[in-house]
Amino acid sequence: MLELLRDEFPDLAHSKLHYLEAEGLITPERTAAGYRKYSRSDVDRLRFVLRAQRDRFWPLKVIKEHLLEHGVEGDGEITSIASRPGPSATMHAVRLDRSGLCSRAAVDDAFLVELEQYGMLPEGQLFYGATELEITTAARDLAAEGLHPRHLVMLRTSAEREAHMIRSVASPRSRPADPASRGEAEDYARDLGESMITLHSSLLRLRLRGS
């Protein structure tokens, strides 16, 4: 099961599968010996759930609602463009190689190298998703106004501090004796991150209003 999704989700672990099963997102059959048996539809459903979390930051309750309303079509693709909570709700799933990212963001490879140099993008990545595309596009627009990646390091360090704070709050939910709890902690951290993004955006708008 993991091997079928490892290329797109290299960090996927059995603990995540157990958690999603406990939450009713996937329901694999069991063999007579008690082993889980995943069908093609289970794989497509899981791919949809993982993409919705990664690329749109949907909480599990929203994913459940979507699956009840729309199900999964095709190869686990996110087909609905319905409005969902959170500032990342309208992001569409993408999977791009380096040249594809340059093409979609209308930048050259030298710009990606600069983003990597200042920690905006990870180095050595083979494929990029919606988040990397959003970062590259936003950085391109800011660079056009004279705010180059070297000027944005404070944003990266702020994001790193916020991520550390969220992980410190979420990590106690991951219990070694309970494999599914790791997945629970990951989803809890995602929800906290979405709230942090909302708060940051609102504070920035508030400060700009008085400028």
From TrEMBL:
At the top level of its lineage, which domain of life is listed?
Bacteria
One Pfam assignment = MerR_1
Instruction: Keyword check for Transferase, yes or no.
Output: no
InterPro entries in alphabetical order: DNA-bd_dom_put_sf, MerR-type_HTH_dom, MerR_fam
Alphabetized UniProt keyword annotations: DNA-binding
* Residues annotated as domain HTH merR-type: 17-70
Region: Disordered; residue ranges are: 166-186
**Alphabetized SMART domains for the sequence:** HTH_MERR
Could you tell me which PANTHER family the record lists for this protein?
HTH MERR-TYPE DOMAIN-CONTAINING PROTEIN, REDOX-CYCLING DRUG-SENSING TRANSCRIPTIONAL ACTIVATOR SOXR
Q: What is this protein called?
A: MerR family transcriptional regulator
Native species = Brachybacterium rhamnosum
